[in-house]
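User: Second chain of the day. Same drill as before.
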Amino acid sequence: MTVAVSPTRSRTPAGLRLGGIRSGNHPWKIRLVSHAERRETPQFRAAKKAAKKILAEMSEDRLPYGPGPTASEHWEMHHGGSLWVRGTGGWRLYRARVGVEWSMQFCAAPERIDRLRQDAAELVAAFPLTLPALVALGYEEAEDLLRTPITDADGVESWTDSLFNACVPLTRGNHQGILPKVPGEHHYPWPIKGADYFRFDDFRLWVTLPDGTHGAVTPVDRRGSGDGHVRLMHVPEGSAAADSVARAQDLGVMAVLPPNSSAALQAFAQQIEPGQRTASGPLAPRAARRSRTRRRTHRTPSA
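Assistant: Same format as last time:
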């Protein structure tokens, strides 16, 4: 079963003039304040320094989230649960069950953050090269961080700004970006945003919907199947499609857009012939060549 998603025009409620203002008995306000009260802790400075040394040792094809920043940019460190370990093949990054964002530490129960510490300690113990390698990089606090139970706000703060939480290396766009440029982890759901790091290069995950909002879509079948339908995975609140996506979730079905929809044509634009009016059909020759090249590249060598 599919739910058809059709844009609807919003209408101004009767009695409300455009440009008018309504207020209730309990008004609310939002203040936009600077981060003057936020200080960069010594723990965070040490963690960033170590993370940058780790990144300098990695080749570009080993970076956890694709190519690094351009020459005019720099790495941004995301408090996303960064479990760095050293294996026989070099450094690798695992993600913790949850990352503790800087502002979220103030609602964090110490005993729950200590569970994250225990998880990290067990993982690092499975990679015995890690702690000596971190000491060699100058990050000598790693062992104490992993060994010391977290029981108070000071312990939460130390963990929050440590190498094992605060150093997921991202470009600025992937960290804080907003569509239509780049979707950042701070603004888009991780189960959707995560696909940016493993999708085919010629599949467009984020598309512009008919009402001008941006959504995320995914194919409904494997590459080369010829099926050009796309499943609408995420839309912002306020989008004309939001109610249909929510209704589909309630029913346990998919919100699917047809192959001739603008969303499907955007998503598959690099896999179909220019000017084609449907996303269904065989892969365009250029896309088929990429598939064959990829299969040859990833074929396991014979013994």
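The first helix runs from residue 42 to 57.

User: Great, on to the next one.
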